[in-house]
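Predict structure. Chain length: 64.
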Amino acid sequence: MMMDYGTLRGLIALLILALFIVIVVWSYSKKRKSAFDDAANSIFEEKVEIKHNDKNNKQETNNV
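Prediction complete.
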């Protein structure tokens, strides 16, 4: 059985609508709220800088 172009476009539109609804439900679920809040507030946290020895950071050069 062959589908015409209009039916195929309709099915793709329904698939995209269903995917949109799934993403909205997932993003507004209560289980995800704490993870999204942590991600949103992470910009305000102080960065921890890792300091290495100077000799690890220096590039060796060969002068001839």
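Summary: The first helix runs from residue 5 to 27.
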